[in-house]
Specification:
Elements: E1 4-10, H1 17-25, E2 32-38, H2 45-54, E3 65-67
C-alpha cells in the first residue's frame, strides 16, 4: 500500500493531464499512487489518462493511475 495517495480531479483537461501526471511521478518521494478521477470529460482526457497509465515517463511501479468516468466505467488501469 502506498504511503501517499494523490487524487487528481479531471474535467476536459486532455491538453494538461500528461504534464500533471509527469510532474507528480517525478517528485522525490517514490511511494505514491495517483488517482485521476475523470468526471465525464467531453474531450480526450480519459484517453490521455489511459495512455499515461501503462508507462509513466519510462518509470514503472512508481505510480498507479486510474480514471473513473461519471458513468462508472473504468478507463485507466493500475500499474
Amino acid at each position: 500500500m502506498p504511503k501517499i495517495s494523490i487524487i487528481v480531479p479531471c474535467y476536459n483537461v486532455s491538453n494538461y493531464i500528461e504534464q500533471c501526471i509527469s510532474s507528480l511521478v517525478n517528485q522525490t518521494f517514490p511511494d505514491i499512487e495517483i488517482i485521476c478521477v475523470d468526471d465525464g470529460s467531453k474531450d480526450k482526457t480519459g484517453e490521455e489518462i489511459k495512455k499515461n497509465s501503462t508507462n509513466v515517463n519510462g518509470k514503472e511501479d512508481i505510480a498507479r493511475v486510474a480514471s473513473i468516468s461519471a458513468n462508472d466505467d473504468m478507463i485507466g488501469g493500475l500499474i
